[in-house]
From TrEMBL, chain A:
The keyword Mitochondrion applies. It comes from the Eukaryota. It is found in: Mitochondrion. The gene is LOC110513600. It comes from Oncorhynchus mykiss (Rainbow trout). This is Large ribosomal subunit protein mL46. Keywords: Mitochondrion, Ribonucleoprotein, Ribosomal protein, Transit peptide. Residues 104-115 have a biased composition (Basic and acidic residues).
Automatic annotation (TrEMBL), chain B:
This is Large ribosomal subunit protein mL40. It comes from Oncorhynchus mykiss. Its main location: mitochondrion. Keywords: Coiled coil, Mitochondrion, Ribonucleoprotein, Ribosomal protein, Signal, Transit peptide. The keyword Ribonucleoprotein applies. One of its GO terms (cellular component) is mitochondrial large ribosomal subunit. Residues 138-165 form a coiled coil. The keyword Ion transport does not apply. Belongs to the mitochondrion-specific ribosomal protein mL40 family. Residues 1-31 form the signal peptide. InterPro entries: Ribosomal_mL40 (IPR019192), Ribosomal_mL40_metazoa/plant (IPR039145). PANTHER family: 39S RIBOSOMAL PROTEIN L40, MITOCHONDRIAL, LARGE RIBOSOMAL SUBUNIT PROTEIN ML40.
């Protein structure tokens, strides 16, 4: 804060000197007042130059993510490892009730088939009931499993259009919209221009809510922007006042929402972003979109 | 008369009557005590031991003694009852007897050489895979943090006010709840059936 103060202090003195030179000695009585007014004028001009000196237009954009709904499929190595873990656990475990029953049944069978089989003794022990062996039960269960049709985990197998929120339930998707920027309509993250009197986060929220025919309920993660994209306008459009624009991105998670299929929305995975975004834009955006 | 005097030794309130009677008797016709010095000393005789042995006079001492005995017994009972409360057993920590059975032990599998080699190699590959995964994650997080830092820098160059607004924490963000991914996707408009259950958990009271 020291630097601006010294600059402020030096200015009115310079103004005062020029005033004195111009007006001469006639206005010596008014010196004090002119000093005060010069001081105020200096601050006013300084603040004006400050607000004017920023030649960048500000935009607030939202990176709306739909988090994954189901777990991802395993890699081959993950599959192998899971199998190995299961095997090792089985080897280190004790026998379960079902396995013990299997052993007992097999022993009983061997005793029945032996020569010195005493059926009276055996039946006295087991009460003469017709027991269902554990093996029979296993067979019936296997038969049932064959007839069972489980529902598909991932309901779309590449069938749903890109605009649907239901596609790729195992990955996190990002919302893209088509907006006119300058002369072209390009795919980008939904953005809105900043207006005085609001924070950039509010700009981003406005950008999201102003999308036509879409009510997304999003939770914004804090007031801090997660990324910035700065670009200069092409030479024809460039003026003294606005050299270019800065787009500040805010992260949000989708909690609930619906959108009609007609609107130009896209829900894309991180790997698919390349096909839609411009390279310079993509470079900046790719950094903060995490695929975790 | 002398025998009566002897019995009047160690007097209590009642024998005062005896004094009055004796005095009036001694005074007699004359109206004044004209007996010798022996009579005067007799008057000061107190009541004797046999008079003390009356059952009425033991009321104060015995109830006190009985009470003391009762209190001592009660104190002893209280000391015995002051046992520390029994600790509630943690059922998770006690292995059920069912699993200590020897017949349940699975025979140790004899792995062939190839199988054990395959397992060792697979474990090493897995650790390498996990290491690359971890490095990638750390890198991604680093990039995201760097992007945020740049964004704040640019914002500060723009306007201090917006920068300060961006730095303020959001009080409405926490508590933040989110249902993580499940194995199967949720059914639309699914109503879970209300079921009955018998709660058989053991409840211990101390």
């Amino acid at each position: 804060m020291a630097a601006p103060c010294s600059r402020m202090a030096s200015r009115p003195i310079w103004q005062f000197i020029t005033n004195v030179r111009r007006t001469g000695l006639k206005h010596t009585g008014v010196r004090q007042i002119s000093l005060g007014s010069a001081c105020r004028a200096a601050t006013q001009t300084r603040s004006k130059t400050e607000s004017v000196a920023s030649p960048w237009k500000l935009y607030g954009a939202v990176c709306l993510q739909r988090l994954p709904v189901i777990s991802q499929e395993r890699n081959p190595i993950e599959d192998q490892f899971a199998e190995l873990m299961h095997q090792m656990e089985l080897e280190r475990s004790l026998l379960s009730d079902h396995e013990q029953r299997l052993l007992e049944d097999s022993e009983r069978m061997t005793r029945k088939q032996a020569d010195n089989y005493d059926s009276d003794e055996e039946e006295a022990d087991y009460g003469g009931q017709e027991t269902i062996t554990a093996q029979d039960q296993e067979d019936t269960w296997e038969q049932k499993l064959k007839h069972f049709q489980p529902a598909l985990r991932d309901r779309d197998v590449g069938g749903t259009p890109l605009g649907s929120v239901e596609r790729c339930l195992g990955d996190s998707l990002v919302l893209l919209v088509q907006q006119t920027v300058g002369k072209e309509t390009i795919w980008l993250l939904p953005q809105a221009q900043w207006e005085a009197g609001e924070t950039l986060r509010q700009t981003a929220e406005r950008g999201l809510s102003s999308l036509p025919e879409a009510d997304f309920k999003a939770t914004f993660l804090g007031n801090t922007p997660c990324g910035v994209y700065r670009y200069t306008f092409p030479k024809e459009v460039r003026t003294e006042r606005c050299v270019g624009a800065k787009v500040f991105f805010f992260k949000a998670f989708l909690s609930a929402g619906s959108a009609s299929q007609k609107e130009p929305f896209l829900w894309v995975k991180k790997t698919e972003l390349q096909g839609y975004l411009k390279p310079a834009y993509l470079e900046k955006v790719d950094r903060f979109i995490l695929n975790l | 008369m002398l025998s009566c005097l002897v019995y009047l030794r160690n007097s209590s309130p009642l024998p005062l009557i005896w004094y009055v009677v004796l005095h009036s008797f001694l005074m007699g016709v004359d109206g004044h005590v004209s007996q010798g010095p022996w009579f005067a000393s007799v008057l000061t005789l107190k009541t004797s031991a046999p008079l003390r042995a009356e059952p009425k006079k033991k009321k104060k001492v015995d109830p006190r003694r009985e009470q003391m005995v009762r209190e001592r017994l009660k104190k002893k009972l209280k000391k015995l009852e002051r046992v520390p409360p029994e600790l509630i057993p943690i059922e998770d920590f006690t292995t059920p007897a069912k699993y200590m059975d020897e017949t349940r032990v699975r025979g140790a599998a004899q792995l062939p050489f190839e199988e054990s080699e395959r397992r060792a190699l697979l474990l090493k590959e897995w650790s390498r895979y996990k290491q690359t995964q971890h490095r990638a994650e750390m890198e991604a997080v680093g990039l995201a943090v760097e992007a945020q830092r740049e964004a704040l820098e640019e914002l500060r160059l723009e306007s201090e006010e917006l920068y300060q607004a961006a730095l303020r924490p959001d009080p409405l963000l926490f508590p933040f709840n989110h249902q993580g991914p499940s194995y199967t996707p949720p059914k639309a408009q699914y109503e879970a059936p209300e079921g009955k259950y018998n709660n058989i958990t053991k409840v211990y009271t101390q």
